[in-house]
Every structure is written in structure tokens, then in C-alpha cells.
Amino acid sequence: MSYTDSLSQDGYYDAMVAYCNEGFDLVYAPGGEYTDAVLQVAEEYPDVAFALLNGSEDTPADAVNGNVTSLLPDAEQIGWIAGALAGLMSETGTIAFIGGMELTTTLQKYTGFCEAASYVAEQEGNTITALDAVYANSYDDSSKGIEFANAMIEQGADVFFGDASAVDSGARQAIDEYNTAQGEVTVYDIAQPADYLGQNECIIGSQVTDNSSLIALCFTAIEEGTFGGEVLYGNLQNGVLYAGELSDLVPEDVQEKYADYIQQMIDETFMQ
Predict the structure, then answer these.
(1) Running DSSP on this structure, what letter comes out for residue 33?
(2) What's the pLDDT tens digit per position in 195-250?
(3) Which of 6, 138, 157, 205 is the most exposed place for a label (fewest CB within 10 A)?
(4) Topology of the domain covering 75-208+240-266
(5) What would you measure as the largest C-alpha separation in the chain, in angstroms?
């Protein structure tokens, strides 16, 4: 097993070709932005399996050798997990979303985030306004996150959610600096796709995606000779998605309400 990190988009193809030439028989690409490079390399290396996280539902059919599988966490549910917490925790009634690129899955996360926050706030007798999503057109430009977060705080946003990797880290830096200047934590961030509680003071919770369980399904399919040409879905129901630990900044009664909303999502009764 080997991995490469901190890749820019112009390095995707070369990194995957290098793995193929070294004899690896499964290449895992961690995002829909890898789609074009995966399809190109998969065509050149028909005996190598390619697993594409957040690949579209159509991508496997576009692979001429049938050696690509899309791993697709339920983007709407990802947004719900964050949105329910935002709806419970926002004091200003304004929430914000920062995206890396305007991908279909990112748009679905934003939509789910907004609708869940609005629904939960309404159940609590409040209203929520979601600012328009902003996109950095990058996953590694933390300065964009700082810029976006400062601007959105000025517009009243007090709960953030993002889908932009290092850009999100920049946003959290800006939020922490704002809270420090205020002398208390009044602006929050909800992290993803791992449990980042404690990484920044502003993080009050996380939406967690267990990618390892999706990759394990790929291993099994390869061993059974059935890999390629399909979409493997991950959601709250099969345990690929779940809510992470909550900060002490979230009051106990709010934590209980949040747990109840998450259970509703699992039971498929949320917003019904």
C-alpha cells in the first residue's frame, strides 16, 4: 500500500500512472475532481481497478474497460448531518457554506445543509437564512477560506460548513481569530469528512464519512471478480456516514435534540 498527498490537479494523471507502472492493482482517487484523470488512466491500464470517491453515477459507464467504480457517499445526508446542528446552534439565523469546486456532490451537500437547517430551526420556532455558497475553485488555497469566512462573518453568519479541504482550514483559522478578538466563541464551524473535534476551537461537531468501509467493499469485489462498472453507495443506514463527537459548546439539551434528529435520518423519517 502507498499513498500520495498534497497533489495539485495537474499532477493527478502522473501520480496514478506511476502507481500502475509500479504494479498496484487498485488505485483509489479521493474526489470527483479526479474523474477525467481516472478515466484516462483506466483506459490505458485495463488490468488495474480504479475506485473514485464522489464519482458521479455515470462515471463507471464511461470507463471503456469497465474497471472504474464510483464510491458515492449520500451527499444530501452529509448536508443534513451538518444542517441539523447548524439549525440548532445558530443565534443570528444566518449560516454559511464554502465549497472547493462547484461539483454535483458539493451542490447536493449545500442543498441538504440548507434544507435541514431550515427545517430544524422551524421545529424550534426559529428561522434560518443560508448565504449563497461560495467556491474557491481550489482545495488547497487556505487564503481563500480566510477571505470567504471574514466576508461571511461580516454578513452575520455564525455557523459554517464546508467542502473544500485546506480552504476549510483557512476558514477555521479566520473564525478562531474572530472569536479570539471577541473574547468568546460565538461563530462555529462544522467539519467534514472526519471527526476533527479539538483541531480548532470553533469546531462544534463533524460529519464523518468512513471511507475505509467503502474501500473494503472494493477489496471484496476485486477478490470476487465483480469489480467495475457500478456505484457503491454509502449512507447513514449502512454506517458509512455518521455524526462525530460534539463540543462542550453545544448545550446538553441541544445535543439530545441533535441525536434525535440524526436518529430520524437513520429511520428515514426526517422531514417527513
Answers:
(1) G
(2) 999 999 999 999 999 988 888 889 888 899 889 999 998 999 989 999 999 999 99
(3) 6
(4) Rossmann fold (3.40.50)
(5) 59
